[in-house]
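Re: the request from the purification team.
They wanted to know what the chain is likely to look like in 3D before they choose a buffer screen. I agreed to run a prediction and write the result into the notebook, where they can find it.
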Amino acid sequence: MRVLDLGAGRGGFAAMLGDAGHEVFCIDRTVDLVAGLPARLGTRRHVVGQVESLPFLSCHFDVVTAAQTLHHFAPGLALTEIARVLKPGGYLAIAYNTRDDTVPWVRRLIALMREADPDAMRGDFGADSVEKIAESPYFGLLERRNFRNWMPITRQGLISMVEQRPAVARLDPAGRGRLLREVGALYDQYARVPDPLMLPFQTSCWRAEVDHSKLAINYDFDDVLQIKL
């Protein structure tokens, strides 16, 4: 399929699409990131641009993907443009990774982190932007599937993950030190040395089929002027 990846960044998701045999185009607003994509992906189909004003022909792509990026775009403008560049019957596909808080030690980790950042490790990350698709007249039935992935993490890796949160970095040295010590103690309690802890992630995936009917001019209106070019 011909696929457009929105906010491709360094091309990690686009590389997986390419490995699966798809013809992948990327767009990102950061010049330096786009400049590095040909070396990683082996193609030159990638542009610097805004998703709200896509520099592509109408009905050009089979699928448009947004992996961890949809919330960065203005929905009122971006969804119209995404619908425009999709072929009839094409799909918008979205993926978001979140920590899976059904595991007891992860719930305790979340409780610790929310002392510094009330919004830390929200299980519904990205859900607000997905709701805009359900409300959009340019897309049909929204389907969702969830997948669980287990990632090994070391003691230092867990501490670093917490330490890099912006809200944690803003804590005073004493508060930050106390939080990181508690995270280390949590790891020590649950890990079975020498094996690392397994950090569960949930990947939530949505797809919606494009509906071009609302993009077409309804010629029954009396105030339509047709100009043939």
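For the purification team: The chain has one domain: 50-213.
Please add any questions underneath this entry.
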